Amino acid sequence: MRNLSLPTKVFVLFAITTLGYISTPYAQTMLESTAQMAPPLPPVMPVSNSVVKQAKDQINGDFGYMDRASVGGQIQSVWNDTIPSEGVFEYNLCEACVYKVRVREFMVTSVVLPKGVKIHSFDVGDSAKFQVKKRADNILAIQPAGGGLDTSMQVYTKSGEVFPFYLRAESFNSKNVPDLVVKIKTTGLQDHPVISTKSISQGDTDETLAPMSILPDEKSDALEGMVSQLAPYGGDKGPSGGATTDFIKSATFDPDKLHGWGDYKLWGDEKLRPVSVFRDDHFTYIQFGDKWTDIELPTAYVVIDEIDELVNTRIQGRTYIVENTSELITLKSGKSFMCIQYGGKA
Fold first, then answer.
1. Which of 42, 53, 93, 306 is most buried per CB count within 10 Å?
2. Taking 80 as the threshold, does the pLDDT of residue 216 lie above it?
3. Cβ atoms of 301 and 262 closer than 8 Å
């Protein structure tokens, strides 16, 4: 200690004193009291066996599998029993019409304007919920963001025409077949929408209705109306000036050929029941009376080789014309149907 410097001597004395206190009972008591004043350590939670096993597996590079399968159960069953032409709707060009289009979520609908028409631009009422894109000079593609929505669409052409559309979006589980293609054509006898080529499965109603009968004055009124409406029937042009089909060109309308009043038996859904049905050598004529403005006009089918085959239809004034004279014609609209069976002379 004699040869040590003063600071070193002080440090050595402090160390000796401290060690002496620790070795005494008093120093031990002080240390225990200090330990009791310190905050307790958090409890150690038990580790499950699965965590231990997973940790061991991961050490060896085994991180398990990952199931990437998507959620099922969303197939749109409305398509199960459709025929190839369903989902296609055709309109004749109409200057005073709003074209109605049924779209569906998760599906794209194409709107095809007449040939030669070039789209300049378009406006959509709800552009956030309906995505519309131009795909060709005369074609637009529409996809809704969901179901239960509707909006309007105005299409402007380079020649200054305006095509107004009403768009209705239905959900993936809707019972209605959507319009996947909507065509606007310039052919036809009159500027009215032609009947859709779509169809939905036949309904369950099997009520049999009594054969219809037409009073003499009703027959006269119907005949007079048909004569005035179909007078241009045998010409090369329809009332709108558009070219008709070759069959219509070659067929000459003869009011003396009209017959069949009271010769038809009807059964099916009452809402599709016509007030008058008659025919000539070429076509079957159906009139719905006051229902004309309320019902969605049906599609028409005839049975060929035990299979329902879609037949051409059109409207002339307020008369629904089926371009067929089969003994049995079935009208379908949604799940509703009406069977029209001819029981008179051919």
1. 93
2. no
3. no
Task: Find out whether 298 and 333 touch, Cβ atoms under 8 Å.
Answer: yes
List pLDDT tens digits, range 256-300.
Answer: 788 888 889 999 998 899 999 999 888 999 999 888 877 888 889
Q: How many CB atoms lie within 10 A of CB 292?
A: 16
d(CA 263, CA 212): 7
Residue 343 tokens, joined: 């029981």
Q: Two tokens at 154? A: 């105005």
Cα dist from 258 to 132, 150, 294, whole Å: 48, 44, 27
When mean pLDDT is compared across 4-18, 232-246, 256-270, the lowest value belongs to 232-246
- Written as one letter, the residue type at 188 is G
